[in-house]
Amino acid sequence: MSMDRPLIVTMGDPCGIGPEIIARAAAAGALDDALVCGSAPVMRRALAAVGQRRPVAQVDEPQDAGTVPTGTLAVWQPRGLAPALEALPWGRVSAAAGGAAAHCIEAAARAVMAGRGRALVTAPVHKEALAAAGVAFPGHTEMLQAVAGGVPVRMMLANDELRVVLVTIHVSLRRAIDMLDEPGILQTLQITHSALQRFGIERPRIAVAGLNPHAGEGGLFGDEEARLIAPAIDRARAEGIDARGPFAPDTVFMRARHASGHPGEFDAVVAMTHDHGLIPVKYLGVEQGVNVTLGLPFVRTSPDHGTAFDIAGRGVADPSSLLAAARMARQLAGG
Fold first, then answer.
1. Among candidates 150, 179, 182, which has minimal Cα distance to 273?
2. Does 290 map to a domain?
3. Residue 279 contacts by C-beta under 8 Å, 6 or more apart in sequence?
4. Residues in a beta bridge with 7
5. Number of domains in the chain
6. Which of residues 284, 307, 323 is at a domain's end?
7. Do residues 243 and 147 lie in contact, with contact meaning Cβ atoms separated by under 8 Å?
8. How far is CA 114 from CA 109, 111, 145, 302, in A?
9. Do 126 and 248 fall within a single domain?
10. Number of neighbouring beta carbons within 10 Å of residue 218
11. What is the pTM for the complete model shown?
12. 20 to 30 A Cα–Cα from 319, which one of 8, 213, 222, 335?
């Protein structure tokens, strides 16, 4: 990958483990084609926390990453980033940290959209810190959607065994159920189908998980399956999308899982709510899970874990999920 268009990695919340896992990945040589969007002093603190002495070079623009010597971590500090972030205490909610994380996300996303970066990998942010900073979005997905002009997007969590796409994400369960409608479910199926095709799956097989126990059991446990989900599946199939279901949500993920000696029946599962869909993927191991935002005009991936304030600054954070996110970003961006 040319460093004229590097992989751009946001530092995440400077009080969490984001800078540490980036530092570990860089020390392992896994980010030699990447540029960190964040604070150079924060990254120096993170390298020290993990026992590394790799030099850090601050660049003025993403395209300057190619001028940084081999073995040096390139950091792009976007204009307007708050100073003295390295003085913030590890593991605490901070409005300054939340505001800095959001500032880097927006700057990095705009750079990738402008062709100054190949793809975007985002380190974890803390939702309370974002809220404390007055950020109008609860997480990465909604923020990136706004930067991209409000295009319809969906969250996919994936590892080598299972891909799950969500209809609703960061809202209360009660509100998520109220938000479900046939057009939204159909749009999720359309976005999933198109994304999987771009990922190289010519004829994606999509399973749709029901909302209620046993997928409603013929209306005994709820009518959302018959009233909303099944009609959306029928409309998707009429468009040539291989969508099937709704299936009982307590078994469909096992059917879709690609494991040794057990090829999955489906290429992805569409789930109605956040925890419905993410618990099965995370149970298989957060260290290999990758969050992918579908529908954006650029590639964005992220580790499948949070800021881990309880261990931040101790130098023990596992970079495996970040490494998986970077690998997937490269693959989806074409190299």
1. 179
2. no
3. none
4. 34, 119
5. 2
6. 284
7. no
8. 9, 5, 15, 20
9. no
10. 10
11. 0.88
12. 335
Greater model confidence, 3 or 84: 84
Question: Which structure tokens are listed for 335?
Answer: 């190299």
Q: Quick one: 258 and 304 in the same domain?
A: no
Name residue, tokens 């040096």. 72
- Cα separations in angstroms, 196 against 3, 142, 306: 27, 21, 26
Mean pLDDT, range 137-145, rounded to an integer: 91
pLDDT digits (tens, 9 = 90+) for 246-258: 999 999 999 999 9
pLDDT of residue 335: 57
Same domain, 228 and 329: no
Domain ranges, residue 233 = 160-284
Average pLDDT value over all residues in the chain = 94
312 secondary structure, DSSP code:
T
Q: Is residue 289 domain-resident?
A: no
End-to-end CA distance of the chain: 7
Q: 65: phi > 0 → left, psi -120 to 50 → alpha, else beta; which?
A: alpha
At 278, which amino acid appears? L
Closest Cα to residue 48, out of 245, 329, 314, 228?
314
Q: Which amino acid is at 321?
A: S
> Which helix or strand (DSSP H or E) is residue 121 part of?
strand 119-122
The three-class DSSP label of residue 90 is: coil
For tokens 């190299």, what's the residue?
A: 335
| CA distance linking residue 302 with residue 315, whole number of Å | 20
Euclidean distance between CA atoms 64 and 36, whole angstroms: 12
In this prediction, residues 226-238 reach a mean pLDDT of: 98
For the segment 40-63, what is each residue's pLDDT rounded down to a tens digit? 999 999 999 999 989 999 999 998
Do 322 and 176 touch, CB atoms closer than 8 A? no
Asked if pLDDT for residue 30 goes beyond 70, the answer is: yes
Q: What is the CATH number of the domain that holds 220?
A: 3.40.718.10
Spatial distance between the Cα atoms of 166 and 144, rounded to a whole number of angstroms: 16
Identify which of 98, 96, 105, 48 has the alpha carbon closest to the alpha carbon of residue 76. 105
